[in-house]
Design goal:
Elements: E1 21-26, H1 28-34, H2 38-46, E2 49-52, H3 55-63, H4 76-90, E3 92-98, H5 101-114, E4 118-123, H6 133-146, E5 150-154, H7 159-166, E6 176-179, H8 183-188, H9 196-200, H10 204-211, H11 213-233
Parallel strand pairs: 1-2, 1-6, 3-4, 3-5, 5-6
Helix pairs in contact: 1-11, 2-7, 10-11
């Protein structure tokens, strides 16, 4: 169970130290899931950095008078853009693990335009709820052989966070690793992000609900009510 009152959350990406770093995000949905998923909660609590990907989390931390009170939302896309711009300035290698080969192919193409100084490698894992031991060995080997300067994992929450946390010690890398889910589709262009005005007014969730009501209604309508309930319990 994750408690916002105690967990360390940061909204300042400029303070991230160099070296091997596991960066996760937390929003209302992941907070709800972590109340019943022990491994997911452990992954969020014990990762190196946790950023507030949701205005609800920012407000809840203030309301609870949490030990760490972020002043602004930092979306997964914000983390992605910050780290990619930083790497592009000096040049290096980035590794995308997750999603379909179609999405990854688009990512490779778009990276040539937006981040020309970054060499991009990708890996599309098997589409299944749980990876076999052979699957995990293949994924870890591919990442370690690439030895990237930046690693992105996108398999939706909580699968991506639990996988990264469970295999963190086996990843022989010395770089930042971010679990960013839908950002893969945003960058590939297979999913459109909300207009800036919606983002600035903390309504990005509502935009996604309108665009994908059948897939998102449970997460946002029931989930937001559940989030308020869980915050009141905390």
């Amino acid at each position: 169970m994750v408690r916002l009152k105690d967990i360390k959350i940061t909204d300042d990406l400029t303070t991230l130290p160099e070296g091997k770093l596991l960066i996760n995000t937390i929003n209302a949905h992941s907070y709800n899931v972590a109340q019943k998923d022990k491994l997911f909660a452990e992954a969020l609590e014990n990762g190196d950095v946790l950023i507030p990907d949701g205005a609800g989390v920012v407000l809840a931390c203030k309301w609870l008078n949490a030990k760490y009170k972020p002043s602004q939302r930092v979306a997964g896309w914000d983390l992605f853009a910050y780290e990619m711009d930083k790497l592009n300035k000096k040049g290096g290698k980035c590794f995308f693990m997750g999603s379909s080969e179609n999405v990854l192919a688009r990512i490779r193409e778009n990276a040539k335009t937006f981040y020309p100084n970054i060499e991009v490698e990708t890996y599309s894992p098997p589409y299944k709820p749980e990876f076999s031991e052979d699957d995990n060995v293949a994924i870890i080997t591919a990442i370690n052989n690439a030895n990237p300067d930046l690693l992105w994992i996108g398999m939706t929450a909580p699968k991506q966070e639990k996988w990264a946390y469970s295999h963190w010690k086996e990843l022989d890398i010395h770089c930042h690793c971010g679990t960013i889910g839908a950002v893969f589709d945003f960058f590939a262009g297979t999913l459109k992000r909300a207009p800036v005005a919606w983002q600035d007014n903390s309504m990005e969730w509502f935009y996604r609900l309108i665009k994908e009501p059948r897939r998102m209604w449970r997460r946002y309508i029931i989930g937001n009510v559940k989030f308020l309930f869980n915050i009141c319990k905390e």
